[in-house]
Design goal:
Layout (H helix, E strand, L loop, with lengths): L10 E5 L3 H9 L6 E5 L11 E4 L2 E4 L5 E2 L3 H9 L6 E2 L6 E5 L2 E4 L4 E2 L2 E2 L2 H7 L4 H8 L15 H9 L1 H16 L8 H4 L1 H7 L5 H7 L21 E4 L6 H9 L2 E3 L4 E6 L4 E5 L6 E5 L1 E4 L3 H8 L4 H8 L3 E12 L11 E3 L8 E6 H4 L10 E8 L5 H4 L3 H16 L7 E12 L5 H13 L4 E3 L9 H25 L1
Helix pairs in contact: 1-10, 1-17, 2-17, 5-6, 8-9, 11-12, 12-16
Amino acid sequence: MTSKGRADRRTVAVIGGGVAGLTAAFLLKDAGLAVTVLEGSPRLGGKLSVSEVGGVAVDAGAEALLARRPEGVGLIGELGLAGELETPGTTAAGIWTRGQVRALPRRQFMGVPADFDELGATGILSGGGLTRARQDLSLPDSASGGDESVTSRVGARFGPEVVDRLVEPLLGGVYAGRCEDLSFEATLPALAHAARGRRSLTQAAASILPPAPPPGQPAAGQPAPPPVFTTLTGGLGTLPAALADASGAAVRTSAMVRELARTSTGWRLTVGSAHAPEQLDADAVIIAVPGRPASRLLAGVAGAAAAALAEIRYASMAIITLAYPETAFDVPLTRSGFLVPAVDGKAVKAVTFSSVKWPHLRRGDPGLHIVRCSVGRLGEDAVLQRDDPELAGLAAADLADATGVRGDPVDVRVSRWGGGLPQYSVGHLDRVARIRAGIAAEPGLAVCGAAYDGVGIPACISTARLAVDQVLAYLGSQDMSV
């Protein structure tokens, strides 16, 4: 790959073969460019992967796509895979706390309550905790005017129990982070926006939730809202291969990019080992790797952006997938799963009853239940240092305590995601602004991925579209100047 490219076409190198990088390659397919995707690991997909457990294809990484954002389902439609979208059987989840699994309130936004009577009925909070939470409606405005941690902002309004037993489990499921570190503005942007001009966070949460049913009218009498989540029949782990195939790009795995430098005509990438380096030239480059490797690549190119990227910490986690006979559960499973507050000291932080949440998983074996258990939060590296059998045993023991499941699973898979989740700590929005300003000063360079505007698949797709737009605008300006 040189600046001449294939058949004298302009060339774009995409560094990183996760969903963001592969989306960028796919979006470039009709631009008349020679695109090469360079992935350092032996496989594509990043945190998207699927394999069989108990003879059932189950995602080992992300297993749900936010359907209410258009980017994900829109991209799947562009790939011709809309017919493979699956609807969840239920999204009603619980919280395992204070001795039992309790229903997660429906009228809440990422744990921030919008209905105190409903919250009180769940028993998630103690009596004192509920009394303190109600003070949000009468306390004076406590907003600092700048970014602050989730614990600082939400705790000031509701007290510590709402943070510990509601908000932390929900945000922990997304970021594997700590509320005392996570940015309120970056991790709860919709709530932060709704809170502007409102004293009460309860009122802000209520303003962004669907209207409650009228008094005396059951929720079942209302039109069913569209599903919040969706997935693919074969698992979201099938999406990377579909993107790669449809992109028409040259896709290389085990192709680690070790250095990036500007040339008189564009960019030079050094690929492979120090003993046998390969140099590739490109007219434009999209960097779609996590913060630390992106920082190393940019250190000699865009120093300010590299420094800001180096500030982003990452949390590690593992997903233990267990297959049980349906008869191992004395009580039918009706919820999609449950979350576990860190304050309760359990190894497991979240459990998904995959075969309940996604009924299509039971089409092959209706007598089997697939359960996913998430382990690991920021700073909990010790638990992840256990070997696979011990980690699976911890997950199975917590599951038995919560549900009473009997016997051993018939199959187990342990999937480890070291450094997989970026932490949107206080000041994240400013950090991202500094990164993008530094990148903008380097024509023909763009970044995308989970480190910037959201860790979900739709957010990653959105950053890929932005990166592609930037690269195409640059290449178009170069063409016009010839």
